Amino acid sequence: MGLFTGKKGLVFGIANERSIAWHITSKLAEEGAEIGFTHLPDKDPERPRNERRLRQLVDSMSPKLIMSCDVQNDANIDEVFTKAKETYGEIDFVLHSIAFATLEDLKGPVYNCSREGFKLAMDISCYSLIALAKRARQILKPGGSILTMTYLGGEKVIPGYNMMGICKAALESSTEYLAHELGPQGIRVNALSAGPLKTLASSAVGEIDMMMKLYETFSPLRRPVTHDEVGKMGMVLLSDLASGTTGETLHVDGGFHIMGGPPEDAFKAQAK
Ligand code: 0WD
User: Fold this and answer.
1) Could you tell me if the CB of 200 is within 6 A of ligand 1?
2) Assuming Cys at both sites, which of 8, 12, 41, 45 could form a disulfide with 68, CB separation 3.0 to 4.6 Å?
3) Ligand 1 pocket check for 152: Cβ under 6 Å
4) How confident is the model at residue 203, as a pLDDT?
5) Distance between CA atoms of 19 and 53, rounded to whole angstroms?
6) CA–CA separation, 272 vs 37, rounded Å?
7) Whether the CB of 158 sits within 6 Å of ligand 1
8) Which residues of the chain have pLDDT under 50?
9) 245 close to ligand 1 (CB < 6 Angstrom)
């Protein structure tokens, strides 16, 4: 029997096989979870690329719910949760693995971010968690769990992360407020702060190879983390193994976030 046998939930944010949401999904499925999925709406209904990519990954799990969902659209989110209630009744978990900012705003500088760019990035990358939690609490069972994805750039200045860092700070604060509000209902809300991984979203942030090198040099484990490691911890936070944990931002980053200065061997490597 798996950790998720008899448990059901929704996953928002699989774009392709590199998506963090996909790696968490694989672990959830291995543990027996029944999962419904949403994908970003396709611009051209004749060529449903987002839906096709998602289906290629998840069809073998025979999901009862696959829908498009634009988290900027309240009516669309309502449709997803209405359908989820019809399909599953109550659910046990929700994974929110969604972020977006225009390239211009990701490149920075932050002081050049437009009002519209700020609203867009905050809406998709932060407000969407609140919007999902509002609906999810109506169908989540006591003991249920909501998980979102964040990055160190929300706690510290990471040059190059710019507007998304501000979104992640707001997302982590939202996680805490939601944890406080949903806790009495027995619902946990946590954030997983992952080290850099090559995905569609991170390719937009840029300098991903340099970030990998940084984690190799500075993190206590002296290496970047893997999709699989992030997938495992995502599954754990959504499971009963984490039943006493809420409002937490948990790092899966090889310990990078604890460092306040470079380790001694970083200078030796440079001197070579
Ligand atoms: O290094 C990384 N890749 C890290 C990512 C390190 C730490 C955290 N994260 C975070 C991201 O900021 C994001 O919150 O993890 C989350 C997932 O990111 P990912 O797996 O790196 O990226 P990706 O595979 O691109 O999934 C993000 C998805 C979108 O993908 P695209 O690339 O098509 O924009 O967010 C979804 C979409 O599927 N998305 C939306 N979903 C619904 N409505 C919307 C929207 N309006 N916009 C984007």
Assistant:
1) yes
2) 41
3) no
4) 78
5) 11
6) 49
7) no
8) none
9) no
Ligand 1 pocket test target in 129, 199, 214, 228 with most atoms within 8 Å of CB: 199
DSSP per position, 187-241: -EEEEEEEPP--SHHHHHH--HHHHHHHHHHHSTTSS---HHHHHHHHHHHHSGG
Backbone phi, then psi, for 191, in 5-degree steps?
-125, 140
Residues with a known catalytic role: 151, 161
- The whole-number pLDDT of residue 269 equals 61
Superfamily of domain 8-271: NAD(P)-binding Rossmann-like Domain (3.40.50.720)
SS3 93: strand
d(CA 3, CA 236): 9
**Spatial distance between the Cα atoms of 191 and 200, rounded to a whole number of angstroms:** 20
What per-residue confidence (pLDDT) applies to 270? 61
pLDDT for residue 45: 82
Per-residue confidence (pLDDT) for residue 204, from 0 to 100: 73
Distances (CA, A) of 55 to 62, 65, 88, 110: 10, 11, 19, 37
Of 171, 253, 203, the residue nearest 18 (C-alpha) = 203
Residue pair 4/31 in contact (Cβ under 8 Å)? The answer is yes
Domain extents in the chain: 8-271
Going from the Cα of 147 to the center of ligand 1, the distance in angstroms, rounded, reads 14
In angstroms, what is the span from residue 221 Cα to ligand 1's centroid? Answer: 26
Q: What is the pTM assigned to this prediction?
A: 0.97
CA-nearest residue for atom 22, ligand 1, is 201
